[in-house]
Amino acid sequence: MQKKGNLAALLPIAVFLVIFIGMGIATNDFYAMPAIVGFLIALVVAFLQNRELNFEQKFSVAAKNVGDENIIIMCLVFLAAGAFSGAVKAAGGVDSTVNLGLSLLPPSVAVVGLFIIGCFISISMGTSVGTITALTPIAVGISEITGFAMPVCVASVASGAMFGDNLSMISDTTIAAVRTQGCEMKDKFKANFWIVLPAAVAAAAVYFVQTMGGTFEMTEEMSYNFLQVVPYLMVLLGALAGINVFVVLIAGTAASLAVGVFTGNIAVTEIFTVVGDGVSSMYDITVISIVVAAIVGLVKEHGGIQAIIDLIGKNAKGTKGGQLGIAALISLVDMATANNTVAIVMAGPIAREIADEYHIPSTRSASLLDIFASVFQGLIPYGAQLLTAASLSGLSPFDIIPYMFYPFFMAVSALLFILLGKGEKK
Q1: Would you say residue 239 lies in a domain?
Q2: Residue 251, domain extent
């Protein structure tokens, strides 16, 4: 029998949002309170609800949901992605990838080139903040040389960074979207790519028109070693070929370590240290995923997820309405949490229930989760992406937002795919 919807069961999620947003507003810093603290408070609230179950039964419900195959695989992939990231960075892969892109930058289309290189680097590195950190100082220099408005140059980098954040095989947002929806990485990539490609083309066209006629010359030698870029290509091509992403990441880590030792960037005695450092960088999101899974299990048992589905059902009509519901859900959660990975981990299980209810293919629900989380993560002035870009350029996030064309076009493209699509069934 279908569990009756219960809006009161959503109280733990509401408590987290109130605490997290309240602290952000009170301190003017949305990263002042660690997200895990807010989720632990929400977990306590979830345990205090639902008098139909005793504490032992609630622990059993929470543990059962944490032990779900997709949650466990997601956490393992997070750790494997961290190992690869740590190894490839220590091997010099990040610097070589950035310099390779910049060495190919056509001087006549400087800002468009920054956008395209941002796309390339972020899809290789799997991190939007890392891409912004690497390229923003260069964008500032190009602005000073060409006379182009600095907000335009910096926004082109941040926009390109959001492209890879949404598509990269090693991005934690992609991993979370795929695992919570139960689809294959390569299938999600293909479905997602065709939705965002028009947005990327449109953004590049706008940057080109805005900055026609400008030029610049790189004053520094952009040295790179293509061998150090190979592990990124291995992971990208391997995942696209359908090889298990866990296997691909382990192989990429081994290749990165071999390249690092061969080039002298990693001492043999440091092999385990650099891998360990990378794995450690993923501890936060892994623990958050476990705690959120426990909260979602208790909320679902108490009828909270069914209440959301019922609420969307009152306004949704068919497959298209369900997709719009998923888009609205993840958009609101991301704006509230200012972290697209956390937002996907939170909204993913609910989105999967909606997808099942409205016969939405898992590749489409995973794409919508990742797309709309990236849309608002690239537009909110209190997100890590724009805060990083602003701090490195001396601008305000509000100076950059008007020129963040890619996230805006990405939202438009995704909505058109929903509204004009045939609403295919699973």
Answers
A1: yes
A2: 71-280
